[in-house]
Each structure stands twice: as C-alpha cells, then as structure tokens.
Amino acid sequence: xxxxxxxxxxxxxAYERLLRSKRAELLAHLQxxxxxxxxxxxxxxxxxxxxxTLMEDLAVGAIQRERALLGELEHALGRLEEGVFGICEAxxxxxxxxxxxxxxxxxxxxxxxxxxxxxxxx
Length: 122
What we know:
Layout: H1 10-38, H2 46-82, H3 97-102, H4 110-116
Helix pairs in contact: 1-2
C-alpha cells in the first residue's frame, strides 16, 4: 500500500454532503431523545413507572451512542477541511473507497482498525 498525501477532491465533496446530512439527522434524533427524557409524565402505577424508567434508560443509551457518532462525524468533517480525509490515522495509507462507502467517518484502514479492537477469547 502506498502512503497517502493530503488531498481535497470532488470525490470528497460527496462524502462531505453525506457526513453533513448524517450529522443533521443525528442532531434531530438527539433533540427527540432529549425531549423524551425531559418530558414530565406522572406514571399511574408501578408498571407504568417501570416502563417509563426503561424508556428513559433506552433514550439515554441512544443519546450516548448518537453523541459518540456525532463526534466521529465532526472529526471526519475536520479531516476533510484539513485535506487528510480518507488517510489512515495510524499508518498513513489511503483508506480503500469500499471502506469509506461503508463507513464514511472511518479513521483507520481495516488492518489498523482490526489491530485496535480488543480480541475476545471464548
């Protein structure tokens, strides 16, 4: 694999539109989840209270996941601005187009991403 250089191409403009669209979608979801958590509803009984608590927990979990993804999107947009989008942050090679199409906010090539993941043993 060849080491990548800083680039900003028309191809990257499509990724920028995709990342900005995904960011807008996430911001809307985050607002919906916040409203779910902040809505004041008085449960009628213990079952309603348990259901309400579960729904709040699920909403908080969704908020945490979406905020993490939002951070990745922001980072990818920053890399676009810097001209280093699509370049592996670990080894400096160009991230294959196939990977970027699947995960436009990818920071690492597949090989480096696999090395960074913990390996679970049975």
